[in-house]
Amino acid sequence: MCHVIVTCRSMLWTLLSIVVAFAELIAFMSADWLIGKAKPSSSEDVDDRTGGSQEPYRPTLGIYGRCTRISHMQLSRRDTLCGPYAESFNEIASGFWQATAIFLPMGILILCAVAFVSVFTMCVQSVMKKSIFNVCGLLQGIAGLFLILGLILYPAGWGCQKAISYCGPYASAYKLGDCSLGWAFYTAIGGTILTFICAVFSAQAEIATSSDKVQEEIEEGKNLICLL
């Protein structure tokens, strides 16, 4: 018989697992990893509301994508265009970024699988006499290692020609030059830290769902068990 067991700790672990997976996925797909040096505004960059010139634009560069400003030939306005600069894996600007594009998706794939499974831990707490929480925690720890490898290798690619075109001639491995780090890089780091927190917290979720109070509720014949 299936017993639906919901505790504060198990629910918090499930929510964190889902949030971490989505955060890492969004960060990887974003082009806001590097914020390039400011491009001086031209005479065409005029704010229609104030009549003054707009602030200098700073293009952004991601692992495989970029955002830049394009000018229209017939209209005196400029639009921001975002999209992949690499149409294939081999066109990614740096070998280090190619490695990052392998390790990060591997970690994200594991996190998404764990996030999917975590939803069903309310009904199924063990498979083949092994706690799903412990197995998921182990997988989250492995995913965290993949994420760390990707994040360590990523700055090593700052010396590639693509990064130099955005960050200036002083950019090199682990040196930003005229660039600054974007929100996607910080999100990936924060998600990695939360991944290890989830891996540790999975043990608490397992303890909460197998506590004496839960066993007492099961013995009383209850199918829906909610404990604070």
Automatic annotation (TrEMBL):
InterPro entries: LHFPL. Signal peptide: none annotated. The keyword Transmembrane applies. Keywords: Fertilization, Membrane, Transmembrane, Transmembrane helix. The chain crosses the membrane at residues 12-35, 96-120, 132-154, 183-203. GO terms for cellular component: membrane. It comes from the Eukaryota. Pfam families: L_HMGIC_fpl. Gene3D superfamilies: 1.20.140.150. The keyword Iron does not apply. It is a multi-pass membrane protein. Its main location: membrane. GO terms for biological process: single fertilization. Coiled coil: none annotated. It is found in: Membrane. Belongs to the LHFP family. PANTHER family: LHFPL TETRASPAN SUBFAMILY MEMBER 2 PROTEIN, LIPOMA HMGIC FUSION PARTNER-LIKE PROTEIN. This is LHPL2 protein. It comes from Urocolius indicus. The gene is Lhfpl2.
